[in-house]
Amino acid sequence: LASALLILLIPAALGRLEQSPDDEPAPARSSVLSELTEGLALVRANRLLVAIFAASTLLAVGDGLILAGLVIFIGDVLHAGEVGFGAMLTARGFGGILGGIIVARYGARLSERRLMPAAAFAMALIWLGMANLQYLPVAMLMFLLTGTPAMAWAVSAQTLLQRTVADAFRGRVFGVYSTITSVAALTGMGISAATL
Length: 196
What we know:
The protein has 196 residues and is mostly helical. 80% of the residues lie in helices and 0% in strands. The mean pLDDT is 84.
């Protein structure tokens, strides 16, 4: 839910973008660390990028919390063991494939700034619903349903990043984005493992 609220900042940020991303000067060649530092500086200077990064980071922490807690949820609440865990991950995989197809077919009907908060709210509601279930087939269906909003989020975030950042800087910004969201997911998993 926090991700969905943060992403509501995107329309305001979009209205304040004054220069085209292609108006930025080309970067000089340098080391990986300096390129990541340049990418981070670009992100901090752009409100839209800050909103996307903040919301994506919160979403990644939440996903990490859920994935690490899934083993205990399946074992202790659903009493399904390793077969149930495999079934849940399979449902998530199929959900991602189905979500990709749905987003490719219908995603263009909504702008990214509307699709992202809707996707975040949908994922939060599905996760909350799943947490209150004690029947494996229904939990699998709920996990499958997270595929469509997850893909809608991912495609929208990457589309906004590509539209906002000049070609010459995209690698730097995407490198920072991948690094931050990966560390956030690991942080969520660590928190979940430490508290469960």
